[in-house]
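Example for tutorial group B:
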């Protein structure tokens, strides 16, 4: 293995609408203060103060140029939580007083957008309650109301709307009209929808929505399979799937991501365990380097439109379990009121079953089980630009989080660029033509240099096999992040 002074990651803005969202930081800073306190704490102090547990805009120093910074619920609602202001989309004067140099809310929002961008973020986004503020609607037509809000966002330079809950959250006519108005009046603004998979046809992005960390992978696989089966791409919207905080699933699958993990490791400020990111399971807060790797891969292979005609979903199902020992330290309490957990909880055991693999624009990978007969969850895709990627996503059994190490055969077609995410035993790239006299390079996606690994790789006509042992030394991270590699064949 020889280090070379070549960086295969292009120095461009990530074209995918990936973002960091503040909701879990709001939970952390309030020691799980429940929605009322979480809504109150989104303000200029929490975003810009250097004091712990704030400074949220200082997160992701190396990745933020590839991420929007999305203020979650309720940047446009007063601290006393005035429900009549839900959907106002007017930067709250009490929460962001220093940005008000005059009485024009659009100027204040523009100043905030500029501040966030000056810190290196790709742009500013915000949570949007799916309804009109009754005190601001004042008898006007809803269409007029939203055109005004869209134009104000464009004037301010806001880049992303995360349209979430509200009185119209499940109203297809409302969401369709809002998306169409945005395409007409503010084509640079990304509008995200949620709740009903059929909305993806008119959406810029469609979010898979909330999952608890301990069952995030199988629940996200289940949601992706459901969404991709009905995704009917028309070309009138971007139709991207946002799979939230599953960064490697997003990278390998050609999806967008909405990152919620943050770098405040360990317990909540009040000393209790952070139940949103349990250390006893995946410890996601100590895996922030995965985010950098994922967004850098998106510079090479951006998220692309979901289309049911180019999706392959394995019929093989995998079942994961988690045995709760201290539920207050391992999962947010409100999940026990949700059918998605209630329906798979028996005693203290959560059980979830999902498809084993999903691929887009390419055949499903062929996976050889490990010595225990186990396989990981797998997501793979061939990007419209030809790049091929695959993620090996871990399993959860009883109280163990682990990745079965398997040999995998991947249809490489004629690609020369590959993204490999997670742990594996070997990956064999099967090409449609002979590969002779080639050089094979590998690069940790969080590094700015590559290695020539040609001498450590087995080539056999149309097949190139990459054992993990040949690239293991390249996978080192500054935290507990799982591997994320770029393979280049020249």
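The residue assignment follows.
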């Amino acid at each position: 293995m020889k280090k070379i002074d070549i960086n295969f990651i292009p120095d461009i803005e990530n074209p995918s609408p990936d973002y960091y969202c503040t909701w879990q930081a709001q939970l952390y800073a309030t020691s799980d203060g429940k929605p009322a306190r979480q809504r109150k704490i989104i303000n200029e102090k929490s975003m810009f103060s250097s004091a712990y547990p704030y400074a949220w805009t200082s997160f992701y120093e190396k990745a933020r140029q590839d991420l929007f910074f999305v203020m979650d619920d309720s940047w446009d609602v007063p601290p006393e939580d005035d429900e009549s202001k839900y959907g106002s989309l007017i930067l709250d004067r009490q929460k962001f007083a220093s940005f008000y140099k005059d009485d024009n809310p659009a100027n204040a929002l523009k100043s905030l957008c500029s501040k966030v961008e000056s810190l290196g973020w790709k742009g500013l986004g915000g949570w949007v309650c799916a309804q009109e503020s009754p005190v601001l609607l004042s008898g006007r037509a809803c269409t007029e109301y939203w055109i005004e809000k869209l134009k104000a966002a464009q004037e301010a330079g806001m880049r992303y709307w995360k349209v979430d809950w509200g009185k119209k959250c499940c109203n297809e006519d409302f969401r369709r009209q809002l998306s169409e108005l945005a395409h007409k009046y503010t084509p640079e603004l990304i509008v995200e929808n949620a709740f009903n998979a059929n909305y993806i046809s008119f959406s810029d992005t469609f979010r898979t929505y909330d999952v608890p960390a301990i069952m995030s992978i199988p629940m996200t696989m289940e949601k992706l399979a459901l969404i991709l089966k009905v995704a009917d791409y028309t070309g009138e919207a971007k139709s991207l799937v946002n799979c939230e905080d599953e960064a490697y699933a997003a990278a390998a699958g050609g999806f967008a991501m909405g990152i919620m993990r943050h770098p405040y490791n360990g317990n909540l400020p009040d000393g209790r365990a952070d139940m949103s990111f349990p250390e006893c399971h995946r410890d996601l807060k100590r895996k922030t380097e995965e985010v950098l790797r994922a967004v850098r891969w998106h510079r090479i292979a951006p998220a692309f439109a979901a289309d049911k005609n180019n999706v392959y979903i394995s019929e093989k199902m995998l079942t994961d379990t988690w045995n709760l020992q201290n539920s207050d330290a391992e999962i947010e309490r409100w999940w026990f009121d949700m059918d998605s957990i209630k329906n798979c909880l028996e005693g203290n055991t959560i059980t979830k079953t999902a498809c084993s693999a999903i691929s887009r624009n390419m055949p499903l990978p062929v996976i050889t089980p490990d010595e225990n007969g186990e396989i990981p969850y797998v997501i793979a895709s061939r990007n419209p630009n030809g790049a091929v990627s695959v993620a090996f996503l871990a399993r959860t059994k009883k109280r163990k989080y682990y990745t079965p190490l398997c040999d995998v055969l991947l249809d490489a077609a004629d690609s020369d660029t590959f993204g490999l995410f997670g742990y594996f035993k070997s990956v064999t790239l099967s090409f449609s033509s002979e590969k002779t006299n080639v050089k094979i390079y590998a690069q940790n996606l969080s590094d700015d240099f590559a290695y020539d690994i040609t001498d450590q790789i087995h080539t056999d006509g149309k097949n190139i096999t990459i054992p993990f042992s040949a690239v293991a030394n390249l996978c080192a991270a500054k935290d507990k992040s799982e591997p994320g590699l770029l393979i280049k064949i020249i």
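Residues 12-311 form a domain with the TIM Barrel fold (CATH 3.20.20). Compare this with the pattern of hydrophobic and polar residues in the output above.
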